[in-house]
Automatic annotation (TrEMBL):
Bias (Basic and acidic residues): 114-125
The keyword Transcription regulation appears for this protein: yes
Any Pfam family matching the protein: HTH_5
Keyword Cell division on entry: no
Region (Disordered) residue spans: 114-162
Domain (HTH arsR-type) ranges: 14-108
InterPro entries reported for this sequence: ArsR-like_HTH (IPR011991), HTH_ArsR_DNA-bd_dom (IPR001845), Metal_resp_trans_reg (IPR051011), WH-like_DNA-bd_sf (IPR036388), WH_DNA-bd_sf (IPR036390)
Protein name, UniProt field: HTH-type transcriptional repressor SmtB
Source species: Corynebacterium jeddahense
Length: 162
């Protein structure tokens, strides 16, 4: 049952319909241009010509992206004379974008850490032009180290003999 829960999302309190709607929303957010539009609309209502000027893209392209965002319920539009004002219908989407950006920063930091670890394992692949392999990692002096490092102590119990 646990495997079933993991695959259906039930453990997270999400049903199949929730997962399907979320997948559709992720598809809508899968565009740098749409993310930029949402972030600009977070500052206030805009007309298409303002978005065109800010983003440096064509009016038809911006309008197409706005149509997708409106269809997803993230953006609303109201007519003001000859122009249409666009605004955020779901302001919380900006927080989601910020959370995703933070997650990508975490992923980049994790990738950088993995690259550093790999460089330590294979220093010949990462040697600099002067022949050095970079900074050496030095153990801290004994005065600042704990007597017993719990991270290095084996935690597996010894086998019992009958």
């Amino acid at each position: 049952m646990r495997d079933l829960d993991r695959h259906t999302g039930a453990r997270a309190g999400l049903g199949e319909d929730d997962i399907a709607r979320t997948a559709e929303l992720v598809k809508v957010l899968d565009s740098k241009m749409r993310l930029q539009i949402l972030l600009l609309l977070d500052d206030g209502e805009r007309v298409v010509r303002e978005l065109v000027a800010e983003l440096g893209k064509s009016q038809p392209l911006i309008s197409q992206h706005l149509r997708v965002l409106r269809g997803a319920g993230l953006v609303t539009s109201t007519r003001n004379g000859r122009e249409v004002l666009y605004s955020l219908a779901q302001p919380d989407v900006v927080r989601v974008i910020q959370d995703l950006a933070a997650l990508t920063n975490y992923t980049e930091a994790r990738d950088e850490l993995a690259e550093r670890r790999n460089a330590r394992r294979h220093p010949e692949d990462y040697a600099s032009s002067d022949g050095s392999a970079g900074a050496a990692i030095i153990d801290p002096p004994a005065s600042v180290r704990p007597e017993i490092d719990p991270g290095l102590a084996p935690s597996t119990p010894q086998p019992r003999r009958d």
